[in-house]
């Protein structure tokens, strides 16, 4: 059985005090959840204080990005060792905003994925199509391309440590949401890609999250789909009661 994972991507929001308060509130309300893992990914400058707030609590810490080199002249970047040093267990890679706003390539996502796995950090690999790609009937092709690139060189032993997040770009921050049937179709396709590349047993161990405007009001229906194993939550992750509301819909 795959445990649900509800992951909060805080993006470029909060400051030190509000971030610590949010993490604390989430941890305080997370005590009675069953079969659900919780994760928060604050801005990198607040990873350390949020880690302190979560010490001993049932909420994991993740980062929003990292670089694929160990160290060196890479101004503004973070290494896997740095994330390990502050206690980050997960890292979001290839988020649509990094791909389409900041120009991150499939090859860079792959390098980061391999480096995270090498360092013992679970990568949350994001894939997803833009509106014009969906309307052109290219959803499956786009997700296959991003999937195949990201998993190049990932061994069968490493795969269960990877989380995939399906992000329909047209449904991020827009208020639009893929229907449960649309989400399940893509999640099932991604599970099949894992099966084709590895095998069914390995594919059955990988958690695939939905990442497009999930809220407490629509979470239960989305999470009831057989291949939807949780959510990568944006706006709703910035309010503890909404984030926990999604988690309760899972558990």
Automatic annotation (TrEMBL):
Binding of substrate, residues: 9-11, 173, 213, 234-235
Q: What is its main location?
A: cytoplasm
Q: Gene3D superfamilies from the xrefs?
A: Aldolase class I
Domain of life of the source: Bacteria
Q: Tell me a Gene Ontology molecular-function term this record carries.
A: triose-phosphate isomerase activity
Task: Name a GO CC annotation attached to this entry.
Answer: cytosol
Q: Which PANTHER family match?
A: TRIOSEPHOSPHATE ISOMERASE
HAMAP family, from UniProt?
TIM_B (MF_00147_B)
Q: Could you identify this protein by its name?
A: Triosephosphate isomerase
What gene name is listed for this protein?
tpiA
